[in-house]
Specification:
The chain has about 180 residues and is mostly beta strands. The chain contains no helices and 16 strands. About 0% of the residues lie in helices and about 55% in strands.
């Protein structure tokens, strides 16, 4: 939120989750409310969704099936949409991004990431970043765990996984060697 004017925020509570449409400092997104923060009160997970420019959130209560709907700024200003978990905005896939925190894996000094393994059922792009360098590569969807030999040097690291369609990614593991 730092450095952002958030006078147009909109929030709602729906099915144990708190939703907040707000403006965040994100390089790739613009708009009045360029992000949707979702806080799950049961698991305490926080999800940040971008690619939407939400004007207002509203719960529509119904004894059969209640819904969380949104009105939008910009391109979709003449539409009302339902907030769902399908990763789409009016039928169009949104880019899915998962990004880890920076880590030194609990060890000081230079290290080399030598292997990445993960299970991805759909195509994705993986980027391993360090304080020294960055490497990206594409993986095709598979029902089996994939391994990729890599060589990324640094003291601290971050992994980002991006999918432009469906995403089902698990079992992410990095193997590193200390350069002592």
């Amino acid at each position: 939120f730092e450095g952002q004017e958030n006078k147009y925020c909109s929030g709602a509570c729906f099915e144990g989750k708190y939703y907040l449409a707000c403006k965040l400092s994100l390089d790739q997104s613009s708009g009045e409310n360029n992000a949707l923060l979702v806080y799950d009160s049961q698991s305490e997970d926080v999800t940040i969704c971008t690619g939407m420019n939400i004007k207002q959130l509203q719960v529509l209560p119904n004894p059969i099936k209640s819904k969380l709907i949104a009105c939008f700024y910009g391109t979709h200003k003449d539409k009302i949409g339902q907030i769902s978990q399908d990763g789409k905005l009016f039928g169009q896939d949104l880019e899915k991004v998962w990004q880890s925190a920076w880590t030194d894996f609990g060890e000081n000094g230079m290290k080399k990431i030598v292997l990445l393994s993960l299970l991805t059922k759909f195509d994705c792009t993986v980027t391993i970043s360090s304080d020294v360098e960055e490497k990206s590569f594409s993986l095709h969807g598979s029902d089996k765990v994939q391994e990729k030999n890599i060589c990324v040097l640094g003291k601290v690291f971050q992994i980002s996984i991006v999918s432009n369609g469906q995403a089902d990614i698990s079992n992410v593991q990095l193997e590193f060697k200390s350069n002592k």
